[in-house]
Amino acid sequence: MKTLVVAITGASGAVYARRLLEVLCEAGHPVRLSVSPAGAAVIQQELNVARPQAAPSEIIEELIAPWSEQIETHPHTDLMAPIASGSFPTAGMVVCPCSGGTLSAIAHGGSGNLIQRAAQVHLKERRRLILVPRETPLSLVSLENMKQAYLAGASILPAMPGWYHGVRSIDDLVDFVVARILDQLELEHRLMEPWGAS
Ligand SMILES: Cc1cc2nc3c(=O)[nH]c(=O)nc-3n(C[C@H](O)[C@H](O)[C@H](O)COP(=O)(O)O)c2cc1C
Question: For position 131, what pLDDT does the model report?
Fold first, then answer.
């Protein structure tokens, strides 16, 4: 099974990250996870994980509790972690959700924390890097950063669900975005039928 790197940063949409982790782990993929402090705060706020003001490590531990055997976590300050090096093999990296701040850092070669460094590694090694920004409206700065990251090799996959697949619940909208991420990683899934399949 392929090792995937997942990073969670401080944009809204923690529910996408939780579902992504669930699907990857249920499919048996080992995951290396790093969460920024802002990412942990948004997880707490949006998913009601741990208590308000809990330490990021406590929030992350509670988030991954169902899959703790498959997910190895790395503090976002740990530049000694294996995923900081191109010598550590991975099948790709997803930043979900990706804040405008992290998008900017990745687009401009920043590597001041493990998430940014691992993203630079994926770009330089020409591996899949999928960024899932969530912001609206978009400033020219963010649009230019997306263009720059795209030109450097990243896939820009906004958390922007489609409504054409018989949506009945919020879960269907979440699965739409996660399905698109898995498509980019070229991982099989059964989250939704391809258009025209039925
Ligand atoms: C509750 C909350 C929601 C936020 N939502 C977004 C968002 O949707 N998109 C975004 O780019 N930033 C958002 N932010 C701002 C980022 O968290 C902030 O810019 C942070 O510095 C990003 O740091 P990081 O990239 O290290 O996670 C949000 C912040 C909070 C507290």
Answer: 99
- pLDDT < 50: residue spans in the chain: none
134 lines ligand 1 (CB under 6 A): yes
Instruction: State the CB neighbour count (10 A cutoff) for residue 147.
Output: 12
Topology of domain 4-184, CATH: Rossmann fold (3.40.50)
How far, in Å, from the CA of 9 to the mean position of ligand 1? 7
| Whether residue 11 has its Cβ less than 6 Å from ligand 1 | yes
Residue-level pLDDT at 88? 97
For the CA of 45, the closest atom of ligand 1 is: 1
Closest residue (by CA) to atom 12 of ligand 1?
11
Distance from C-alpha of 3 to C-alpha of 90, rounded to nearest angstrom: 5
Note the pLDDT of residue 139: 98
Atom of ligand 1 nearest to the CA of 113: 26
Ligand 1: does its nearest atom lie under 6 Å from the Cβ of 76? no
At 72, is the secondary structure helix, strand, or coil?
A: strand
Q: What is the tally of helices (H) and strands (E) in the chain?
A: 7, 6
Cβ pair 84, 117 in contact under 8 A: yes
pLDDT at 198: 67
Q: Indicate the DSSP class of residue 45.
A: H
| Domain range list for the chain | 4-184
